[in-house]
């Protein structure tokens, strides 16, 4: 393959996601070096034209951009954050695409910056099959200049790669927020399934009714975010639902779950938040008022 003048890139970690990242870069014509602790996992990429580095040191030295996709930040720290490799970081762009925390991203950014590297911390909001497609979404935080300089590289990874801010922990914070939304929906679905099964309702019926209900829920979520952003917690003419309405319905759900011996630990947590808000005099406020009571002890 003719590399031309394109940036050289190293991908560290060639599991399913790392292989998808490297494969997209190769398809876009970027000279790509790969390294993985288990070398056999790099074989398919070698057949596509990737250079397989024999060591992590050589992998880092090989390229101006180093993309990391391993198991967690601790694994990255073990591989890269040492004096031997740290001396090779100057002038490089390190792109961490491993799941972590905002505080971990800030700590890493400080370490790499002290060694003269530009550090972009990112999260992949997609499964491997979306990498390299127009719908592939990756959020990156860190120096805007590094993001803009290598924009073509990032566009090769997905059509919806976004720079979300200079503060290095921002992408991981957004990831956690969006996962909280996702898990809320998934655990809610598990509860719905358990209720239907206990009441001998076919799950096909649940699916049909959810299709009709989903737009209403989407509207409630959008309204909750909008009202919380504006601090509009008192019920008004535009309120879609008050805390009191949810509180009553939740008591009915909890009674049903107790009678059917369905695990109520998640619902009990919701109820505890409502009780804190109610004790503070917010029972008849907009549901968005609950956003003030997520802090433990409030």
Automatic annotation (TrEMBL):
The keyword Oxidoreductase applies. The keyword Oxidoreductase applies. Residues 167-294 form the NADPH-dependent reductive aminase-like C-terminal domain. Residues 9-165 form the 6-phosphogluconate dehydrogenase NADP-binding domain. It comes from the Bacteria. Keywords: Oxidoreductase. InterPro entries: 6PGD_dom2 (IPR013328), 6PGDH_NADP-bd (IPR006115), HIBADH-related (IPR015815), HIBADH-related_NP60_sf (IPR051265), NAD(P)-bd_dom_sf (IPR036291), RedAm-like_C (IPR048666). One of its GO terms (molecular function) is oxidoreductase activity. Coiled coil: none annotated. PANTHER family: CYTOKINE-LIKE NUCLEAR FACTOR N-PAC, OXIDOREDUCTASE GLYR1-RELATED. This is NAD(P)-dependent oxidoreductase. It comes from Mesorhizobium waimense.
